[in-house]
Amino acid sequence: MESFDERCYELLKQVPKGKVTTYKAIAEALGTKAYRAVGGAMNRNPYAPKVPCHRVVNVDGSLGGFAFGQAEKVARLKAEGVEVEQGKIKAFKERLYDAFQ
DNA sequence: CGGTTGACCAAGT
DNA sequence: GACTTGGCCAACC
User: Which residues form the Methylated-DNA-[protein]-cysteine S-methyltransferase DNA binding domain (predicted)?
Assistant: First the structure.
């Protein structure tokens, strides 16, 4: 039985490059409402390069937090082609991915 | 095992 | 538009 955290990572790995998802989407995909627990899993994320934690944002398209600082999060997103402005994802709805299997 | 904390969310002020 | 409040639930001490 995988822990709650590991299931978050598995879902996150399904998010294609250039797209983003939300803490809520992940929690709901796991059948729970522990939005904050999802963020906690990312914060303690032991799979730093493997799991694309930077592709997870708030439900309104704002960046949310990041263990290495928001600036780093923006840089990584931009490196994947995701444009960010004023702490929010541009064309958020178009880049949003929540079709988890 | 109880209380605190948190990379959240929604609604109210 | 910014700030406060209440609620949710897993991890941590």
Answer: 4-82
- Report domain A4-95's class: mainly alpha
Contacts of A3 (CB under 8 A, 6+ apart): none
Footprint of strand C on the protein (CB under 7 A): A 3-5, 32-37, 40-41, 44
Distance from C-alpha of A22 to C-alpha of A92, rounded to nearest angstrom: 11
How high is the pLDDT of residue A46?
80
Q: Which residue has the tokens 């997103």?
A: A77
Q: Is A53 noted as a catalytic residue in this protein?
A: yes
